[in-house]
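Budget justification, computational time. The allocation requested in the original proposal was used primarily to generate structure tokens for proteins on the priority list. As evidence of use, we reproduce two of the resulting records. The first is shown immediately below.
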Amino acid sequence: MRTGKALRTTTAVAAAVVVATAGCSTRAPESSGGGGGGEGGSGGEVLTDVGVEGTTITLGVLTDLTGVFAALGQDITNANTLFWQDNQVCDTYTVELDVQDTNYVPQNGVQLYSGMEPNILAMQQTIGSPINTALAPEYESDQIVNFPSAWARTLTEIPGTGVVGATYDVELANGYSYLFEQGLLQDGATVGHIYFEGEYGENGLAGSEAVAEERGLTIIPAQIKSTDQDMTAQITQFAAAGVDAIALTVAPTQTASAAGVAAAQGLNVPIIGSNPVFAPGLLQGPAAQALKDNLYVASPVSAFDAQPELLAQYQEAYPNVQPSLGVLVGYGMSAIMKQVLDAACENGDLTREGVVTAFSELQDVDTGGLVVPIDGFETGVSPSTQSFILRPADVPGGATVVQQAFEGEFAEGLR
């Protein structure tokens, strides 16, 4: 099984900044069992440096609360917070999060990270491929372990960054596999693909192009900016070309526009998208029926029908928020961070270097069905080859699972 090559990850923490004395060593209290172990879990010395003060660990979160992925960012971040309210590192250390809103602007992310960096051990979450890419040099030089709320292939090249699931090209290819298996797409078909400029969209397009090479598809690419709202021109082009399906690597706003315009033009074809394309709020809008009829989402996480206890816990904590499946992403990535930090604590080394070492040794990561199985984090390699397939529905989270986590016919070739 693949394992990481001395990668470094970053963890996000909400609401507090803790200063730690570089190179200090603290004695961990006796552990009550569970996550504790090794020297740290038995009252031995645990080496610490940045982001640990006493028995408090601070993690960073660079999220989007006001930009194009605001709904997703809110749920991922809330779930990060919810997880760490109920969990400790080796039954000893409380985790606090320093949460900052980037508005999905890379420059903002770089500036905000500069302010939090002296006080954090790792990054629990960094949302958006462009922001993760902009911060790659800092994350590497600072030895930061980071879990991105993004799945671009380029992010697997950043030391210490752990993509939580399959990369976009693998994910979208799994979506195509499902369409072929269900008889919804045939060899030689024509597919129109709308995609954001940048790593997210281009990696999704790479998935379409790889499947096209295998199955003789004709891909009509249509690049847009994240600020573009109306997909009429693109869908009109696709309709004129007689496309058999539409692929999307965009945000929910563009998904709703594409589905609604397609329905209005009588273009009743399957729409396949990577996981960020959908939010449950779309089912309250005019494109709701078109989305239910035609949208298929390849996802790194399941749906709330498989996680009823997490749904109840989230609704109790955030009663005024309509939960999306970003809750499962946030909770799952936090569970993986806990595995990393527990291992570092058990090794007696909660320094940044020690966390990087623990991260690099992760393999066969299991989150109890929240996230697809992850083999490990290896540079340039998709951490998983599996995806769930979801369909929009009038249920909490806005989607149900129609295909459990599976590896499609194109996935291994893209890995």
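The second record produced under the same allocation is shown here.
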Amino acid sequence: MTPSQEKVDKLYSLIANEEDARACKDISEQACTEVPRNFFLILISQTLTSLGDLLTSPKTVLTWLMTAVGAPAALIAWLVPIRESGSLLPQLLIGAWVRQHALRKPFLVLGAIIQALSLFGMVLAVLWLQGLSAGLAILGLLVVFSLGRGLNSVAMKDVQGKTIPKQRRGRLTGLASTLSGLLTTGVSIWLLSSAKEAGVLIYVLLLLGAAMLWFGAATLFSQIDEEPGETSGGGNAMQQAFANLALLRDDVLFRHFVITRALLLSSALATPFLIVLAQQHSSSGALLGAFLLASSLASLLSSSIWGWLADWSSRRVLLLAAALASVFCFIAAIASQLDGALVASIWFYPLLFMLLSIAHAGVRVGRKTYLLDMAGGNKRTDYVSVSNTVIGALLLLTGLVSAVVASWSLFAVLVLFAAMSGLGVLFSWRLKEVTAS
């Protein structure tokens, strides 16, 4: 063993909180020997992509970007649905395609490159176009970006499931989110002092920086040591994809998990309405920095804690995060009916945004870890692709319903999200424990 390998193993043993850095669970003995190296390759690459996601968030950065180029409000309303559903809906077909290949690492590299090139395209659109044409170009490139994101989502869960043992996956995801949150905090502080002065230039720099982060992640993905896994043979991808939908009918645990995840969409869908409420009191450009800082602090303060808790019980993480989301959505609903110095202050809604983002981070870490631990091999790939595709469709439906309700009353839509999260508590409670199995 080389000195550098010894250092990697020692550092991994500290993070994993174990004396034997090669202790493994749910992966092969051969894969076990590469766990420390793969852990840090995935950790750094996920940190880069998580930072890139924060710097191109449709809830904050892309919303302000579209406003800066003069895009119509009707186009801005499609940012979140396209970003999320565009990466989730195709995964039924993407999963069937990916599972036909013994190595899934190349799909990680491809997905990261697609996302990087899409962001470069957005930079050109911002520099060369204005108004409607700029907005349409950004939305079109966001569709392509989301397809690359969906490819990464399917492949990453399978690669991570093959290279990282159980009870180490949650802390890997949480630590990556914490590190990216720390880095984004610095960017947010810079934005707080620069957003009013630099205009579109700031968004160009954010997009260029995020594109380079994805190129860096692609390089790291290519270095992961992955063993060949199961394949589904040469069957038709379309037929196999729709055959996998039978999992919702036949697999009770999986169906229950998908229902729970669907209810907890509320933690993600509620956050843009906090920005809407904040903009009713102030249109200051510093709000971008404040909300981005709130988002990064949420990752920094909570993700690693959620990750460690998920390695103990991902079911209990879902339960706690759902309860917090319900409470914070209800507080936001009450705040929407108030009109005083408290809610008008620049920090009130960013703080509430941060608390709700902490709950959403718990939902994300909990459901990712739960899904990883439910199954192995191709079944894991099928679970990911089917659940993501179903959730993508439900996201569009829920987004449409919430948009209609919100056009009538912001109070009503926030109460709706609080109720959904409350039901999510009940369904999380009924989930079976899988983490320690």
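A brief technical remark on that second record: The longest helix spans residues 286-335.
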